[in-house]
Every structure is written in structure tokens, then in C-alpha cells.
Amino acid sequence: MTRAATPMLAIRDLVVTVDGKQILNGLTLEVAAGEVHAIMGPNGSGKSTLAHVLAGRPGYEVTAGSVSYQGRDLLALAPEERARAGVFLGFQYPVEIPGVNNVYLLKAALNAVRKARGLPEVDAFDFLGLVREKMQVMQIDESFLSRGVNEGFSGGEKKRNEILQMLVLEPRLAVLDETDSGLDIDALKIVAAGVNSLRSPERSCLVVTHYQRLLEYVVPDVVHVLVRGRIARSGDRTLAIELERRGYDWVSGEAA
Amino acid sequence: MSEGAKQLESLIGRGYAQGFVTEIDSDTVAPGLDEDVVRLISRKKREPAFLTEWRLKALRHWLTMKEPHWAHVRFPPIDYQAISYYSAPRSRKDGPKSLAEVDPKLLETYEKLGVPLHERARLAGVAVDAVFDSVSVATTFKERLAAAGVVFLPFSEAVRTHPELIEQYLGSVVPYTDNFFATLNSAVFSDGSFVYVPQGVRCPMELSTYFRINALNTGQFERTLIIADAGSHVSYLEGCSAPQRDENQLHAAVVELIALDDAHIKYSTVQNWYPGDAQGVGGIYNFVTKRGECRGRNAHISWTQVETGSAITWKYPSCVLRGAGSRGEFYSVATVNNHQQADTGTKMIHIGRDTRSTIISKGISAGHGQNTYRGLVKMLPSAHGARNFTQCDSLLMGGQCGAHTFPYVEAKNPTATVEHEASTSKISDDQLFYCLARGICAEDAVNLIVSGFCKSVFKELPMEFAVEAQKLLAVSLEGAVG
After folding, report:
1. Residue A76 CB contacts under 8 Å (≥ 6 apart), including other chains
2. What is the pLDDT of residues B431-470, one digit of tens each?
3. Per the CB < 8 Å rule, is B448 touching A148?
4. Is the CB of B436 less than 8 angstroms away from the CB of A99?
5. Is beta strand B151-154 parallel, antiparallel or unpaired with respect to B233-241?
6. Per-residue pLDDT tens for B172-219?
7. Does the distance separating the beta carbons of B7 and A169 come in below 8 Å?
8. Beta-bridge partners for B408
9. Distance (Å, rounded) from C-alpha B256 to C-alpha B267?
10. CB contact, 8 Å: B474 with chain A?
């Protein structure tokens, strides 16, 4: 298969500034199709910046380097085009959109993705069936269907909603920005189950996390440690465990 | 300015889709206002003497009044002598008897406005009393309404067919001395709608009037009077738009509603008058007096308005809650973009015991728009156990617009309760990006967020109207984000 040769995501020497401050300093990273990579690192190392720049957030200025997604220049695409092309960002702090129904937003999102793929709009009945099925996976209560987007949700509910959206949209590349933060152990397991249910040879996942706890349930193929905007070290999942034991100073010190 | 704010700026403000002029030979009276003009209007309409007198009393009173300037809006002085107070499309001598007789150009205008009379009327079961400039040119569904005993006529016709009802009720809620613009209207009003729903009758369809200002430099002064007799029910829809002009045009309408015992009047407005261009040139001055009186026990009046147009909107659809146990409601979405100004709200005057009122106001400001909510809740000493709930929410798009809230409360009865909630929010870059990151384009995202914000008002609108309102809102906020 020649396709397998094209990585899902190839980041080369990426330099990103936010508000005039350089956050990513020549980051290079490659994720093959079917792989799950974990991005770990201390606060302020650029983890969330990486996640947002992949999703195309305005205000994150790429001053050098390149990002290719399935062989395409990701940086040339507008945020909504990236989403339609199969890039999904699971937000660390999902916003509330009062009065806008969860299901309505989700349907608009799915239809935008389908339209980009040349598919007709989803049938309302089929759609509701699909959402209900995924809600069960995420153990989300029926009342979710009538509530506003993240309106009055607890932290855990918001995170589960992110993963629910991911399950419905079936992205090719999921970037999960600290999806595990603020979750209790039960919610963490549910979220992990959701993520795992989407693992497949044609999908990849970039899991940004501060702790290795999530990685016990979503077992990564590769773990990277981000320090001062650059990958300081990469390894298999034992790296995450070692990090937890020795702390980030261990890598930071080495990188310096 | 942040990226998101810039996006917002560029998405607000696309062209005004309804800005076209219909070329019809108009019978227009020369500009200016004096007793002769008032008499001429009355004569042209073949009105009974009581009405001519009433108009003249209003004119004399108006001449003693000063244009009010307490609202949070700004406009250059209006030269009332430069306005033509009467303009009627001159088609056939004795007005059209049916749609077939209506000037095809007029019908075309309605088509462009999306009001294909026959289609829409047939499909939606709506009877349309279309007011074109000042004279009603087409009225449909008369027979079905007549069978139910409902009177739905152009005002000028009702004056001739039901003079006793007009004499009894006209000015009984908004007297000719009420305020500068209402008084002016009382002197020169040209046409409008008249509705009478007899005792115990549930009006078999939504009644609808589509107003439109066409002739250059004509003020539009409609007068609408709706009477719901005991135990009756009626829902009335009013839609407005005006062609694009460089000059400002004055629109000073009066609407009076009277609900007797257990009667229910639901009055819905979608106002899309020409708002002026992006620089604030032109547009309608919409200075309107709307008031309803719950005259009987357990009467119920509900105002729902979606205001997206006009250079200046200045209106306070109000309820006088006289009958014990009566209810007043006001649901409003007011949008300002570019240089539009809106000072709108309501007055709930609680007189009877156990009267209840609800006010839900949603103000959306974009561009350089200034949006003011002004409301009065008044509990008179007789209003034992009366209750009010008010919620005012403002949504800001971009950094140059403004939202202002002036809630006045006068409670003179210790058993009355008044609740007020207010909030101001912005369409945040975060909300916008969240939608973008889900594949939804900026424009759809703004529409989504705005409709969410307006949801509690939209759900009060009749179905077809809600759809139209949502579309209008989308059009009026086009360019707000990009």
C-alpha cells in the first residue's frame, strides 16, 4: 500500500508565536495513520498551542515550518475546512453557547462535514439514532438532547460531550487537548472508552495531556515530551510512566 | 481589534434585499400640513363627520406640542411641512374588487417581498390586508372570515361599514392627545387595519397585514384598531419593509388593541424597514405608538416583535392591565447594525388585581448600532397581588456598538411583585472558533449563536413568521462576522 507511506500528520520545524511571544520553537513531529501519540510536558511548554494551531485558531501565527495532513498543506486551510477535512479538536475548555441546542450544533457540524465529502445531508431520524447510540457509549443522559451547547454542564459533562461530538463526526485526526483534566476516574474511563472505540488503522490521535493517568486507558504508540516549544524526548509508553515518577524537571534539565 | 472582532465586522452588513421602487402613478397630496390637508384626507376617504372632527381636534392639539427628545436616539430636525401626508396608488377609480383587479406591478412588489398574496394566503391560510403606502389594495379571505363573523377590513372601509365601533373604540386606548407622534397620526392617518372579533369567536386564521412605504417623501401613518370581544381569540401578524432611499422617511403608526373579558389578542410584528446604508444615510424613522388594553377580566394581550430594520426605532408596545386577572406579555428581539438606533421596550400598567406581565427583551447590537431597552412596570394601588417578570438580555457583536438598559419600576401596592433580570454578553471569539472547529462557517456560526440568543422570543412567533424572522435576522447581521 503506497498510501501508508504518507503520514497522517507531518510537522516540520514549526515556529508559532502568540501575542508576539514565541511558543513553539521548531517543533517536528510525525504521526502515521492508525497511531496514537501522546504529547506530554510541563505547563507552558506549548502543548495547547500545538493543539490550537493544528485546528487553525486565529491569533496563533505560524512564522516558520510546515504542517502536512494526509499530504496536504494543513496551514493553507481555514479552520472550518480543516474540520471538514477530518481534523477534530477536542477542547480543553469547551464554551457554552446558550440557547443553541446540542443536537442542532452537532447536526450542523455533521452536515458540514458530509457536504465537504460530497454526501447528502443526514436524515433527521437516522441522525437521532446515531446520536443516541453514541450517547450510550459516553453514558450521557437523555436530557442532553434538549439542552443548550455545554449550557450549565459540569466539567466532566463538557468533556464527555467533546468525545460524543468526535464519535459522531468520525474524524481522521483527533487532537484531544487535555481531555482528561478535571475528570474523576469513572468519567476518565468513559472518555477513554470513547476514544478507543474510534481507534482504527485509518485514524490517528494526538492526545495532549499533563498526566500519564489517561494513558493507562488510552495506550499510546508513542509518547513525546514537549519542553519549551520543542520535542525534548520521544519514546514508548514507559516514557510516560518514568515521567510521572521522575517529574518533568528530569527532561527539562536534559533538554537545557 | 482581535481577529474574531475583525471577522465580525466584515460579516455584518450586506445589501438591503428589499430596496426597490415600484413605479406606479401615485395620487399624492402636496407637502405640508394644515386643517385643509386634514379635511382633504378625510374627504378623500369619505369619512363621517365625527372622524373629520376628531382629526381636526388632534391637529389643533398637535400644533401645541413639541417633538420629544428624551429617547436615547439622535436625528436631525424633521420638517413636518415638507412631508406629503397622503399618497394613494392611482389604479382604477373605485379600488380593486378582487386580486384580479389589483395592479400587476403591485402584486410583483409583493412577490419580491415574498408575499405572493394568493399563494401565501392559500398555503398558509393567512388573510392579507395589504397596505401599499396608504390605501389597502387587496384583501383576501373576506368570505371565510365573514362566515365566522370576524370583521377584517382596511380602516378606511371599516369607517364606512362599522362607524359605531370606530366611534366607540378609536382613541380609547391611545387618545389623540397621547404623544407628539400619536397625535400627528390621529390628524393625518391614512389607512390601516380594523379587526373586530365577536363574542366567543376564535378567529379561524392568522390575520396579516404587510406594510410597505413606497412613494418618495411620504410619511406613513397607519392606524390599526383591533377589538376582541368577550371570550374571543385572534392572532395578528404585521410585516413591514420599505424601499431604499437616501432621504429619511417618517413612519408614525398607531396600533390600539382592546381585549374584553377572557379575550386573547396576539400581535406579532416583523419589522424590516429600510435601515439606511452602511454609513447611516437614509432609512426609516419608525416612531410608533402601540398599546393594548385588557379591559375585561382575564383578558390576555401578547406583543411579539422582531425589529431588524429602520434607521431609528422608537416604540414601546404596551399593555394596560385593567381587568382583574388579566395578562400582558412583551417578547422582543431588536437588532441594530451599521448606524441604526433603537430605543424600544414596553410599559406594563397594572391596574386590576392579580394581573400578570412578562417582559422578555433581546437586544442585538453590531457595527456602530445603539440599542436601548426602556421599560416601565407600574403597579397601581389597586393592583393587589400583581406580578411582573422582566428579563433583558443584550448581545454585542464587535467593539463599536452599544447596549443600554433603562428599566423603570413604580410599585404602589405592597402585595405586588416585580422581578428583573438582565445580562449583557458578547459573541466571543471562543464561541465562534468552537463552531469553526466543528466545520461550521463563520456566517452560519453567527446565525446559530444569535438564534440561540433569541430562542425564547422566536418560539412565541407563529411558525411561518418564526422562519421569516430568523432569515431576516440573518440578513440584517450579514457581514457581522467574516
Report:
1. none
2. 999 999 999 988 888 888 888 888 888 888 777 677 777 7
3. no
4. no
5. unpaired
6. 999 999 999 999 999 999 888 899 999 999 998 888 765 544 444 445
7. no
8. B376
9. 11
10. no
